[in-house]
Amino acid sequence: MSALLEVEGLRKRFGGGRALFGAARPEVRAVDGISFTLARGETLGLVGETGSGKSTLGRLVLRLIEPSEGRVRFEGQEVTGVSAAALRAMRPRMQMVFQDPYGSLDPRMTAGAIIAEPMTAHGMARAEAARRVAELLGRVGLSPAMAARYPHEFSGGQRQRIGIARAIALDPALVVLDEPVSALDVSVQAQILNLLAEIQARSGVAFLFIAHDLGVVRHVSDRVAVMYLGRIVEMAPRDALYGAPRHPYTVSLLSAVPRPDPAKERNRPRIRPIGEIGSAAALPSGCRFHPRCPRARIVAARGGETVEAAGARLPRPCVEQDPLLAPAGEAAHLAACHFPDEA
Amino acid sequence: MTAAFELRGLTAAVPGEKGAVRLVEEVSLHVRAGETLAVVGESGSGKTVTFTSALGLLPKPGRVIAGEALLEGEDLLKLSPEALRRRRGARIGMVFQDPLTGLNPVFRVGEQIAEVLRAHLPISRREARERAVALLARVQIPDPARRVDDYPHQFSGGMRQRVLIAMAIALGPRVLIADEPTTALDVTVQAQVLDLLGDLRDAEGMAMVLITHDLGVVARQADRVAVMYAGRVVETGTVAEVFAAPRHPYTISLFRSIPDVEAPAGTTLAPIAGSPPDPARRPVGCAFAPRCFAVSDAAGCRSARPLLIGAGHEAACHRQGAAELAA
């Protein structure tokens, strides 16, 4: 089966050049060479911390912002580089759901008008769109009578249901969901996650699910990609990634998640990255995780060729060579680490 | 041993169209020195309002209409505004969720810490600055002697939260109230800040109240827990007791709705239907009854408000011990 979505060497740089009075502005490499594919009906979870570039990547895939380099193909057609008209023709098939169920809905439009908008914009007759709105409200667990209400009359979870109804109105093949449940309380979050699963089971839509919550991502994803400073540093089928992570950053992330189990929480060893995520405006040399990497320090202490960097002795490759995403462990398990077998 | 901080029957309200709307009702809880009490609940459960009320920080027209807030035996609610202001900061410290809003962007980090010190202590500027550097070191800011002259925007989110913690502990409070202190932080940074809070509690013997929505954070950090729903404490006990065998249907449902990173594959989530009630329209009887999987008219769920009675692990539920509630 050919992939629904193919992303190749995607990059996005912000800034750079010189400011008005000649000071050099730092260039931010928000997305710095990303390739992956997504199959029909599949959910790829994209996790990363603030500054990892995951939201930028989601917008690049739908070409809501223009990439600096690289290409995106969707259902066999170019997304990058095509005309506005060609892009517009593709839009019904690729949609987005945003994090903030408050900010992303126009407060002056009724729920019905919000959901109908993409349909009428793509030439559906008003009466037909109204009929579809009622059906869509039902599908996302709201009552058709709610079409006449305004966003402020709904709770956070209900608003997110409206955002989802709008996104699936034109029967898309791909929906990019950017932190769709992170503004919601846990009990409501579970409602929305179940709704998304049900929609996917019925329609075969593929999801690119962007989130920082590793529990949520594990719950919804078939495959998971972990981003760090503009790169995917590890990508694997869900159980492989959570069960046997290969990249030290993934190991640290999983170790840092507090789990609702006091006995395990208090007894498990913690693997802490050093300091905080760096800046995409000043990327480290070699492996971009080396200044924080606990594994590099362990490997260096065992011997082999080391160099002085980030206030420690680290293995030479970590400091000098940018590791590529390469097979590690089981099939389809990829990690960008010079020492993926040290886990 | 007496509690370092204790609330007794705290009730706070705002005026509404049909009389006072109770934001929190009859909240009783306590925390001892060296102990962490987690207060858990979802948005609108009253967990933040409880503590802003107790410290005289509830925005107008909200006000406390009943109850006591005892700081080492002294009722804060009976103090004059000036006396209360002096207790806050000095004997009871606070850290809030958003590390951006807690700091003034136009003043240097060190000046802001020094200001807290000088507001309470008769010390010189120079001495205050020296103490600020020591406090930054205490919260593990690298290179504190240099960073003391930075502005907040030069600090990352995690470091700003450390600065706020430094300000909260500057005067050696006996009680530290931390309201979602790590919610705005990334998970690896969250872990570092939680470690720091735990270390400070142990080193200073402070009593700590940790307000959070995250049961993982509770499991990791707290000794005891109070679960709040619709303005009331619905379950309380040690973390070990409550996590091993939750008794209130709301607590049970919360656990079932968390997507855990180590749950077996294919686990389905059991969400709680509906949403919490508007404080102005809480149902008669148990506020959780409309969403409860174990609701029973015969047990009085829709007619009488269930209460907490004694001490130890307990739940405000008419159906305690019912078969549906067994794990």
UniProtKB/TrEMBL annotation, chain A:
Name the UniProt record assigns to this protein: Dipeptide/oligopeptide/nickel ABC transporter ATP-binding protein
Record has Lyase as a keyword: no
Gene3D superfamilies documented for this protein: P-loop containing nucleotide triphosphate hydrolases (3.40.50.300)
PROSITE patterns named among the record's database cross-references: ABC_TRANSPORTER_1 (PS00211), ABC_TRANSPORTER_2 (PS50893)
Naturally occurring in which organism (per UniProt): Falsiroseomonas bella
Residues covered by the ABC transporter domain: 5-254
Source lineage: Bacteria, Pseudomonadati, Pseudomonadota, Alphaproteobacteria, Acetobacterales
Database matches in PANTHER family: D,D-DIPEPTIDE TRANSPORT ATP-BINDING PROTEIN DDPF-RELATED (PTHR43776:SF7), TRANSPORT ATP-BINDING PROTEIN (PTHR43776)
Gene Ontology BP terms: peptide transport; transmembrane transport
Keyword ATP-binding in annotation: yes
GO molecular function, one term: ATP binding
Family: Belongs to the ABC transporter superfamily.
Record's GO cellular component terms: plasma membrane
SMART domains, per the entry: AAA (SM00382)
